[in-house]
Amino acid sequence: MPKQTDFASLLPPEMDQEALLQGIAQIQELRALQQLYNGAIREMRTKLENLDDEFRTRYDHNPIHHIESRLKKIASILDKLQRKGLPLSLESARESLYDIAGIRVICNYIDDIYTMADMLCQQDDIQLIRRTDYIENPKENGYRSLHLVVRVPVFLSAGSEKVPVEIQIRTIAMDFWASLEHQLRYKSDQSVPQSLREELRECAEHSAALDLKMQNIYRQLTANKS
Known about the structure:
Blueprint: H1 17-59, E1 64-71, H2 74-83, H3 90-96, E2 101-107, H4 110-121, E3 127-133, E4 146-156, E5 159-171, H5 172-187, H6 194-225
Parallel strand pairs: 2-5
Antiparallel strand pairs: 1-2, 3-4, 4-5
Helix pairs in contact: 5-6
């Protein structure tokens, strides 16, 4: 049998019994919310995979290298609500958190990033909430990626509901840098010396230059074929 979640262990031990029961009820609601957001991840993955398949059939090219997804844990949802000074409730999570469901799309080339984003946002049932381009405007540390927050319909027994999903679209090189930078930061408790931060930024610039070179090579090769 699968191990049952000990909801009480996720709550502060000093809670009285009534507050504890209320807290457990709220966590059970959050667990149901997780299921809804997991459905949104499945819907979004299917849309992205269909677009990738269509692009391969029409243009003999797969823009997507691979897709990763993650569902924020209940403890992380509660922690983020608490850090934001928001009520620990289902309604609060629905209204205030857009990253409960997350998808990372790793593309082969920079052009593929914008192609996939545009094709996805043109679909009739997708509602774009926010678009942040860290490729055109990288973060100070060198981070690059295209971030979208969209709403996608999830079909349930009682009807459909539009659920927000955070999507990060980046190249293989961008993902390589971001993954290792994240790992290094947490290995050092996020206290990376300024000199090493400069080196990490330089690595991001080299990675971006490589992306552009590979993009140009691909463009030239495909132009010669046509």
